[in-house]
Amino acid sequence: MYGNDVIDPNEPLNAAETPDYDAAAEHDDQRDGRDAVGDDFDALLAADQRIEPRDAMPDDYRETLIRQIAQHAHSEIIGMQPEGNWITRAPSLRRKAILIAKVQDEAGHGLYLYSAAETLGIDRQELLDRLHNGKQKYSSIFNYPTLTWADCGAIGWLVDGAAIMNQVPLCRCSYGPYARAMIRVCKEESFHQRQGFEILWNLMRGTESQQAMAQDAADRWWWPALAMFGPPDTGEAAKGGHTEQSMAWGIKRFSNDDLRQKFVDMTVPQAEKLGLTLPDPDLRWNEERGHWDFGEIDWDEFWQVLRGDGPCNAERIEHRRRAHDEGAWVREAANAYAAKQATREREQQQKESAA
Ligand code: BYC
Known about the structure:
By secondary structure, this protein is mainly α. It has helices spanning 19-25, 41-46, 59-78, 80-84, 93-118, 124-132, 150-170, 176-204, 208-227, 243-248, 256-274, 299-309, 313-326, 328-354, and strands at residues 284-286, 291-293. It has 14 helices and 2 strands; from the N terminus they run H-H-H-H-H-H-H-H-H-H-H-E-E-H-H-H. Strands 1-2 form a two-stranded antiparallel sheet. The radius of gyration is 22 Å and the shape is globular. The mean pLDDT is 94. Benzoyl coenzyme A is lined by residues 67-68, 71-72, 75-76, 79, 106, 137, 139-140, 155, 159-160, 163, 166, 228, 230-231, 241-243, 246, 252, 256, 306.
């Protein structure tokens, strides 16, 4: 649990601080006693055991994981840009240090996830090519601009909060390397979410214009954060979706709408604590359902962003391609060093076996 000085550290502020996370993190891996289960894919799934890279798996399962894990990895590294935009302008040294650490964490998450995808037999360079040429997606949320400092607060609170709600069940994903990466990622995201909450908390206790800045950021990020969970479970949009199959395979544990509802239920009371008004006139507690009702998401806008026509799509990809090109010398140097080390080790082994 990460404390901070503005809210009770024992009060869960995101899904990684709830018993759901503890239960997922303590998943009982019984593959050592696998005689009882065997190596059969369906039997492993039925016994809630993890599929590991060495196991046989259906091609479609492998492809679905590559698609989702790659999209997730791309989201982490593209997701560095909106907040990275504020590193030089963070309002204090303390804020700058925290923001640098947070953005670095996102890079680290990208690396764990590319490594997890590589265990499925695909090369990292190939995945990056697919990102750069638009064949693979990244999360819609990162195509929105960060106009003020308060956006860094709104991203931490809402975007990381939504990401954690989606990722805690992924700690129980049937594919071992992805599930294990998520256990660590969620804990780190939990710190991110608290720091975002704290930014907004302080702004809301500041001057009138600081309060207005925080409210404006919440107004702009609320709906895109809800859309992040993906298209609805029913209606036309659900027809081409992957949820049913992914749930049958134990990749997804909840549908998009179920996670969205959990996020709304957790976040509305936090907005009240902050003193922010969420920009939805239809938001009201439904006693019968035991959930918050909320208004209709603009799905046309969501699909438009996915097609590449969001406010920042072109800028994000252009920046990413440039960063990749400018980093070519680092990759070349790392490869040359690895090759030199391998040659040395080989020569050493030859010497030892000749002796
Ligand atoms: N954006 O059938 P569905 C972070 C696509 S970063 C774009 O529900 P699925 C952070 C979907 O791909 C964490 N596309 O699909 C970093 C599919 O299209 P394709 C980001 C979306 O895969 C920096 C189509 O819509 N988290 O925390 O079963 C700073 C139909 O959807 C989106 C993850 O990546 C979207 N929002 O479920 C701060 C979570 N939603 O592929 C924070 C991992 C849907 O057929 N991913 N689509 O062309 C998942 O959990 C799942 O992939 C999704 C979608 C729930 C997102």
